[in-house]
Amino acid sequence: MSAMLSKLLGATEPLFSLSIQQLEEVSGMPSEDVRLTAEILGKVRMKIEELGLDPDDTSPKELHMALMSKIEEHDKHLVKQIGGKDPNDPDELMPLMKKAWQKVETPKTAWVIKKTVAKEMLKKKPPKQIMAHLGYRSVDSMLKRENMAEIYGALRFAESPEWLNEFNEEYKRLKPADFQNRQIEVIEMPLERWGDIAAPFIHKKRHNITHLKELGVILMLPVTKEANLKGIAIFTLPLLFHYLQEIRLYSSFFKLQQVKSDFGKIIVETLIADTEKHAVMAGQNIHWRVIQRYFGKLENEKHPEIFQPHVQPEDLHWRKAEDLLFEVAPELIFWKDLDFVGIMDKDKRPVTLNMLDVAASFVNQTPYPKRAIYHFREALWNEIFIRYMGQDVLEKQILQQLDNDMIMPEKL
């Protein structure tokens, strides 16, 4: 059954099958891949029926087209739920989505760089291109009058790679005392000030949401109505919730690293490369994202001692972006727990039921052969590792590695 999972993931064989075999041998939990495969197939069949189609006579392409129609229907519904009138008007919808994000009750704090420290970093290395763009000669004058989060958000768009590399050296000097717990913010970047600078990023990424995990900020980049985007709400609002969880994810990781002598170096490497080598499970590198989500699902009484005193149960609290979206529009429950669900088509590319991917295909009007699958594949990889990590032997191995800060795969 690992063959189907391998195809859905586009994994390299026979390495993938060997990895599954290792996970099962180490965990003592055989056939987890069989159970997961059966669950995926069952959910696909159930959703085909909910869409009013015949499970025995619906092609993957027909399923994809039905999902696109469903996402358009839900986009219109979501727009009404947040108080909007025109599904294609970003000027109207951006502030409404921010307001909806703020209303949802879920943990929204993170351990991030103090604003005073962030300002001092910019004073030591003034962003000349941004200063020229905004018409400032003095960095102090700019920081007094401008939103610092907008400045940081524009750095990657406006400054040269050489400047960014030099600025990263400031991050290496960071110490745990330079961080504080603070509320995560959503900031709209004004079109008249940042439109031309943000445009290339939006064109490349095909969406207008980005985040600063080290500052606890989610940025809504400016989009014009002339862009003629469909499905702005159904794609953007889930991304706002997604990046909320991403910021909290890295916040808990940074908290865990604050006892390390090379704390600043770890911050830089995480922001730039985001390595997956946080632990090893049956020969496979495991990202902190998987570890955090696993322990975040457990009850408080199972909170591992090695996380204390720096990382508390509330730091690990995690919810899927879709689940937060359902609080805004309960009718969208159709997409619940489908983030790792998909089926293969004859073109060797999966048709995914992951809401973010379907929304991405819809908002960008992506042709069927190039349909979005990124979020689905990441979710499926995570789901596989989380299920095996639930076995005591693998959970203990992960905790031992985090405790010792020594990853020794040859001993696992």
Q: What is the total tally of β strands?
A: 9
Radius of gyration, in Å, reads: 22 Å
Residues in β-strands, percent? 5-15%
Taking pLDDT < 50 over at least 5 consecutive residues as the criterion, the unreliable ranges are: 406-412
Mean pLDDT: 85
| General form | globular
The residue fraction in helices comes out at 55-70%
Strand order, biggest sheet? 3-5-4
* Largest sheet geometry: 3 strands, mixed
Class per helix and strand makeup: mainly alpha
Q: What is the overall number of helices?
A: 18
Our measurement of the CA-to-CA distance between the termini, rounded to an integer number of angstroms, reads 25 Å
One letter per element, helices H and strands E, the order comes to HHHHHEHHHHHEEHEEHHEEHHEEHHH
Q: What is the compact description of this entry?
A:
The chain is mainly alpha-helical and 412 residues long. The chain has 18 helices and 9 strands. Strands 3-5-4 form a 3-stranded mixed β-sheet, with helices on both faces.
List keywords for this structure.
412 residues; mainly alpha; two-stranded antiparallel sheet; disordered C terminus
